[in-house]
Amino acid sequence: MSVFKKMDFKSKRDYVISQILEAIRNGDFKIGDRLPSEQSLAESTGVSRPSVREALGALRIIGIIETVNGVGTVVKSSNVDFFTERGTAKLSNILSFEANTFEALEARKVLEPAVALYAVETMTTENLTLLESLLLRLEKAAKDHDYAEFHEINNRFHLTIALSTQNSLLINTVNSLIHLFTESDYGAEMRRRYLTDPSYIVSALAVHRRIYECLAQSDKQALIKAFEDHNHQVEKQLLGR
């Protein structure tokens, strides 16, 4: 029997959060207990899976839950601060309800590889030179532990791929998705965490180098794989997958 209640309308990340926090507070889930899967939570609460993912991501960021390899998502803390009215307000600020940042993340996962494949056909020597210079700056920022610069150059690297298509609609769409995801309060909190993880920085540099090399070599198959790996890195770091 599920401890979660189904609501009559969807897309309410705060509702999922409140349900999970209430279940922890009531003792249905104790520290170390495994939570149901995303699909199970979506079905039992009547909320869409993207909203469930965003709720779990928020709880992971504030340290209530964590993902354990080979186990799944488990309760890490029962911090009472987040069961209060003040705690709920803090969560609302982190989530930034003005925009669904996880939908933006999913949209980027679908769109950017397709844009990159098109960019293979339109890429010029000047575009490749600019991408290589950005890659070198990205590596320098990582070496200098300048994470603000790393974030800025990372965004410019992805936008430059879109710019090389010379298609204003694609460029504006990619730029909007990047801005939507990274500039929200929730995106900023996630960025602060993943950009200070040395292992993520190392893997991010490697996959950006691969993306550049695939574009330079017009290797579409390898380019798709590079973007798949890149998206997996981001989801693993932000969503604990």
Q: What key attributes describe this structure?
A:
241 residues; Four Helix Bundle (Hemerythrin (Met), subunit A); two-stranded antiparallel ribbon; 3% strand
Please characterize this protein's 3D structure.
It is a single chain. This protein has 11 helices and 2 strands; from the N terminus they run αααββαααααααα. With 241 residues, it is mainly alpha-helical. The protein has 2 domains: 13-95, Winged helix-like DNA-binding domain superfamily/Winged helix DNA-binding domain (Arc Repressor Mutant, subunit A, Orthogonal Bundle), CATH 1.10.10; 101-239, Four Helix Bundle (Hemerythrin (Met), subunit A) (Up-down Bundle), CATH 1.20.120.530. The protein is elongated.
Give the SSE layout.
Blueprint: H1 13-25, H2 38-45, H3 49-61, E1 65-68, E2 72-75, H4 85-95, H5 101-122, H6 125-143, H7 147-163, H8 168-183, H9 185-194, H10 198-217, H11 220-239
Antiparallel strand pairs: 1-2
Helix pairs in contact: 1-3, 2-3, 5-8, 5-11, 6-7, 6-10, 7-8, 8-9, 10-11
Strand count, sense and closure of the main sheet?
2 strands, antiparallel
Strand content: under 5%
Level-2 CATH architecture of the largest domain: Up-down Bundle
Described by the principal axes of the CA atoms, the overall outline is: elongated
Tally of domains: 2
What would you report as the Rg, rounded to the nearest angstrom? 19 Å
Computed structural class: mainly alpha
Work out the number of β strands: 2
Distance between the termini: 26 Å
- Low-confidence sequence ranges: none
